[in-house]
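Minutes, project check-in

Agenda point 3 was the complex the collaborators sent over. CS summarized: two entities, 871 residues total, and the question is how they sit relative to each other. Sequences were read into the notes so everyone works from the same version.
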Amino acid sequence: MGFLSNLFGGNKEDKALREAMAHIHRILDDEKFQLELVHPAMKTMLESAPAYDKDPNGTGPFGFIETNPIPVNGPIGQLAYLSRLETQSGQRILFHRLGAIGTVDVFEAVSFNGAEWFILFVDLYHPRRSRLTPDGFRFTKDVAQFSGFHKFCENFPYDFIEKKASERESGLSMAYIAIRKVSDQIQNRVFNRPLAHKAKLDLVKSRLSSFQSQ
Amino acid sequence: MVYNSGQSFDVSILKRIQPRLVELMALKIQQYPILLQDKTLLPKADKQFMDIYEAMERSHSLEQIVDESFRLAFPPSGIPRSGHASASPPVSPTAPQRPASPPIQNREAARHTATVLHQSAFVVLGVTIRDDRRRIVELAEEKSLELDHEVCQKARSDLTNPRSRLSVEMAWLPGVSPRKASQLVENLLKDPMAIREESGLPTLAHLNLLAAAFESVDGGHDADDLAEFIMETAYLAEDLSPEDVLRDINEDRAVSGFPEVRALDQIEAELTERKRYYRGAIKDALDRLPPMTLIQVMTATVDGVTSGGEDHAPGLIDDLVDSYEVETHGILQKEAENVHKLIKVAREHAGSGEAAVKPYVDKLDAVARNWEKIAQPIQLSSKARGMDHEASRDLAYEIRSLAIDLFNKHDMLAQSQRLTGLIQELFSEVPEVADRVVEDAEALADIFQQRKQATARRDEWAREITYRAEIGVMFKDVLSISPEGISWKGQNFPLDSITRVRWGGVSHSVNGIPTGTTYTIAFGSRNSEAVVELKKQDIYSTFTDKLWRAVCVRLLTEMLEALKDGRDLHFGDALLHDDGITLLKRKFLGSNERVRCSWSQVHVWSADGSFCIGAKDDKKVNAGVSYIHGANTHILEQAIRMAFKKPGLRRLSELLQ
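CS then shared the predicted structure for the full assembly.
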């Protein structure tokens, strides 16, 4: 951008870029906008549900069991919430949807460095996302671009790049993290499920009322 | 699944989502077979899907939309209530649910009378892999009159859509002539296992037939034969070549008029699916077996293909073992917990002695053997892949730790050796454990051997020193020596209590004529002494020999240790030091003088019933100690004579080294 352009408020390309960035921020952060992306009928249903940080009748560790799922605002809210999580050691997570137990969606997640694996339970039928995090997590201070999918990844997380590309049609791909943030880990094959996680996965899969197989 | 139940649905959308939708529906059907058996169920899900798809398309994943349509069709949880696949337990009662609508009625599960090959679109429409598009459409129309219209339309669509056609072709018998294909599929129903004897078939076609034959395996199938069958299939799957498959498919397509497949990666992607299907077919067959037979088949299979864990297994077997590992994890964990409990109890009872521990070691043996039976296929596979099976390794180390503690802390060599043998036997397929435990077993065997030898030596020593003799002419007394001590005239001296010994003989004569010899043997503790007088030389010789072995060797050692500690010991006029001896220089006039000599300055001899020590360079410097009256004179003599045999020795205590 030239000196004169600056004086007169920037050129057209710059404006387009700013608008695109603002749009991305709204997708990532703005809960109302996230609800706007949902069909009106669905939106009405979500808005009529209770807005809370956790189910007052929930039992068990928050976010780690289907009886105490994380409330979020619809499917985009799922992506936004899970993408904001980071471990206490500052590692954000990659995630994908394993299936559902009743109305609760079940996600498998792994830290960016491949060191920690999780299974998280999320209830998308709420008007806003929870302000709480499951034990061992906090919210990232980075721009929380999407780092996972609300669909099943057959080769999770090694198929992240292909799955991100497949989000182009939904218009969400621009809200995703840059490939370079995970490409090294994918190339170095650092993501290996520990035996204990595999066992847990097996148990959870046996409870799914809807599942995708690998 | 075709979404045409009377409502409009954008064809372009259907075209775009159909491949993934077909996959998702196949999974739903796999999970809930009732969906195929009860023809009223799928249309309900169809309707909901079409109702909600547009609303959710932009914001939800296709998986979420399908799940939601099932939840709406079959509330509360989206699970059809009848014919649920037994492998998946029902949703827990605590799972979140939304308001329910009336449940779907139970239906009897349909009985399978045909294999998956008999459900191929080719069989449904009665077309061959070489029929053209026109023929397929014609036959689909014809079949619609006798079969379910939707089924025929789907089969038609699968065969005429180039993308889905490839899947159907690869699941069929590519490269096999239509007549032969029809014959093979027919034979599959009559004698499924006969397909194993077929030769000359293209690899993919043969594998598809073998996979279909697995559907006939039931709970009574012979375990060894099934293991053989799995191995044959796994080796054959290794021979799959994308290039060969591409050639076979395109040869058939050249006749049928469908466009050739050009991209090898399409074939490769489908082959990956095929291999997944083969694994599923084998796994389903295994799941129909009784649990112990299943384990037996898995063990025999993995043992066979890896040659006892030495060779790499075919990929199909590795995948199968991975599934097996996941499915047996729960039971292995439970058994491992039982082992932990038994180890804990065994440790707690170790203080009460071996008898208290043995019952727990017995149980541990049984539980560990059970555990190993289940884990062995995984152990073998891990070994073949150059890894240790982590759970086996941990368990083996837990048992090893008990074995070590039982020996180190409680000296229970037998139980420790037993546990070590158990680990060696059960965990030989875990290389790290096997190496470590071999060392343990060798160490314990050494200790066992040494103890055995020590016991043998002790027994021999006991035999050697045990002696009993009657002494006296009219009134006999018993003199006895044994490991329990020496007895004489009612007095008993434990061997360890004896601190002094002396013995010797005195020859008598009258006017120069010998009248016999009197022998004296004395032994005593700090408090008392027993003196034995006897005439018989053989008893005297035998007893002093036994006494030497039983007591004097110890006294000699104690004397040398005392010298080493810096103590001086009196023997008659002499004062014994570690590095020499203080003797008396006898003077004719005046008092005697004490002279300290090193060992190199003295020499020794026996004279007049005494042991004599004198300075080499001064005859007046000497000392004599009576054998018969002086305590431990024989021991002193032995020590000094032994020392003189060691050139350059400066201290007597050097004899201890």
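Noted in discussion: Chain B is about 55% helix and 15% strand.
Follow-up: revisit at the next meeting once the mutant set is ready.
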